[in-house]
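Q: My labmate handed me this sequence with no annotations at all. I'd like to see what the chain might look like in three dimensions before we decide whether it's worth expressing. Could you predict it?
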Amino acid sequence: MRDFIIFTVDTRLYALPVDQVERINTLCELTLLSNAPSYVEGLISYQNHAIKVINLHNLIGTHNLCDPSDIKIATKKMIIYKGNEDLFALQVDTIEDIVQVENQAIKHYSNDVKVSPFMDTEGILEYKKRLVIVVKSIRIN
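A: Here is what I predict for the chain of 141 residues:
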């Protein structure tokens, strides 16, 4: 069994392993950066460190499949992500659930499927009759 946080970005569902999540926060005030890549929203202070806030809409190129005004700012969340090399915040639209999934419930890809050059995925799973992209890792460098 593995634990996942299921979240939305536009109309898509993603599952991120809980062991890669440091914390979940509501979206807060950011310090903007000049000359940052389009996927970097800004910086926040987290445990006395400045960390980047990554806009997953821009990072994975969903290009707003839904109207952003449909998502109230109060529902936007940040997942503090702890990858192998970095700690950063992922701006997501909503946190849907935290679930336990049996390994055989994940349908692994037969070929290397890329959602984005910044995101490695391992397959899909079904959640409430919807398909969820299972994230293996996210990197911003």
